[in-house]
Amino acid sequence: MRHLLLGRTGLRVSELCFGTMTFGGTGMWETIGALDQSRATLLVARCLEGGVNFFDTADFYAAGESEAMLGRALGARRTDNVVATKVRLRMGPGPNDVGLSRSHILAAAEASLKRLGTDYIDLYQVHAPDPLTPLDETLRALEDLVRAGKVRYLGASNYAAWQMMKALWIADARGFTRFESLQAYYNLLARDLEREIVPMLKDQGVSLLVWSPLAGGYLSGKANKDGKAPAGSRLEKDSYLPLDLARGQRILELLRELATAHGVSPARIALGWLLSREVVSSVIVGARTQEQLDDNLAAARVKLRRDELERLDAASALPEEYPGWMLKRTATDRVL
Q1: What is the SS3 assignment for 68?
Q2: Are 189 and 244 in contact (CB under 8 A)?
Q3: Sequence-ordered strand ranges (E) for the chain
Q4: What gap in Å lies between CA 90 and CA 224, rounded to an integer?
Q5: Cβ burial, residue 14 (10 Å; 0-12/13-18/19+)
Q6: From 61, 124, 153, 218, the catalytic residue
Q7: Given this model, what pLDDT does residue 246 score?
Q8: Residue 101: predicted pLDDT
Q9: Domains in the chain with CATH codes
Q10: Parallel, antiparallel, or unpaired for β 82-87 and 207-211?
Q11: Cα–chain-centroid distance for residue 168?
């Protein structure tokens, strides 16, 4: 297991991060996982044995239960590990129980600290943009949490490239702590962020943390030969992801071929492709069983050859769009 730097910091995080969205909860969370404390604790222990030192949760997951269960699972080992959580989504019925206002951020951070059973959060991430709150208000509140010692590093999630650049500019101009990471949707079936977001991250030295690396389980090979999800699966019942099944079938066929050649699962190949991407610092994996977790952790040992990576790139390539094709054409004589 490699441990890579987070953004422009000296903090090292494991290349595989364990996401705890499967911990606890009822309703929609039962479909995702609804693991009890004993099973959650076993999975966290297995992660630690496998070299994982990075754990991701959010106040929104199971209405805070995920945070509480992660805190109990880590226990005394908390200080040896990097804990990331998020703020932004609705946590109650009130008009201020949601968003990125100063009021909500400060209240949410205190609640997360209490549930996690800790006095600091390693990486505090805004879960999504808030169109109603000025960005400078959000960044000022986050800066105050850092100065108070309650938060050590900041990150964003689900931001467009222009929103990240605006946030980084405000932080630089006002001497605030900058976002060191962007948590975003990225996998072989969803490479949209390569158009604008990835170049921005590379230019600004911001790390990419990947959520849903298997496209909600689709790239694990669970889909039937016709591309449909198995009956009763989470992919069938609760997937809000826009999946291009025509492209997906071509990708799955290649994943299965390479998986057979390497003697591993298609999921490991899909994760191995992500781990080969220069901009990726950590890939967030989730699991409901130890078998699933062990298979995901083993992806860190998959070494794909250059020709195999090129085949995966070609099978999953995005159609060219403007200005991308023009930028590529006009830069031909300016590349070292």
Answers
A1: helix
A2: yes
A3: 3-5, 12-14, 16-19, 54-56, 82-87, 121-126, 151-157, 179-185, 207-211, 280-285
A4: 36
A5: buried
A6: 61
A7: 82
A8: 98
A9: 3-330 (3.20.20.100)
A10: unpaired
A11: 20
Distance of CA 335 to the CA centre of its chain: 31
The CA-to-CA distance between both ends of the chain, in Å, stands at: 32
In the structure encoding, which two tokens stand for residue 320, read together?
A: 């060219």
Measure the CA–CA gap between 276 and 292, rounded to whole angstroms: 21
Residue 14's nearest CA partner among 69, 53, 45, 48 is 53
Closest-CA residue to 135 (of 167, 179, 158): 167
The rounded distance, in Å, linking the Cα atoms of 211 and 16 is 11
Mode of pairing for the β-strands spanning 12-14 and 3-5: antiparallel
Q: Which residues of the chain have pLDDT under 50?
A: none
CA distances from 132 to 64, 136, 138, 237 (A): 24, 12, 11, 32
Instruction: Tell me if 98 sits within 8 A of 86, measured CB to CB.
Output: no
> Taking the model in full, what pTM does it have?
0.94
- Go through 84-122 and write b for each residue having 16 or more CB atoms within 10 A of its CB, e for each that does not: bbbbbeebeeeeeebbbbeebbbbbbeebbebbebebbb
Q: Are 304 and 272 in contact (CB under 8 A)?
A: yes
Place of tokens 């222990």: 45
pLDDT at residue 243, as a whole number: 87
Please tell me the predicted confidence (pLDDT) of residue 244. 85
Sign of the alpha-carbon torsion through 206, 90, 16, 185: negative
Residue 177, Cβ neighbours under 10 Å: how many?
Answer: 17
Task: Evaluate the omega torsion of the peptide bond into residue 93 and state whether it is cis, within 30 degrees of 0.
Answer: no
Task: Provide the token pair at 208.
Answer: 């990419």
Rounded Cα gap, residues 7 and 281, in angstroms: 8
Would residue 61 show up in a list of annotated catalytic residues for this protein?
A: yes
- In tens, the pLDDT along 70-127 reads 999 999 999 999 999 999 999 999 999 999 999 999 999 999 999 999 999 999 999 9
Report the pLDDT value the prediction gives residue 231, as an integer from 0 to 100.
Answer: 57
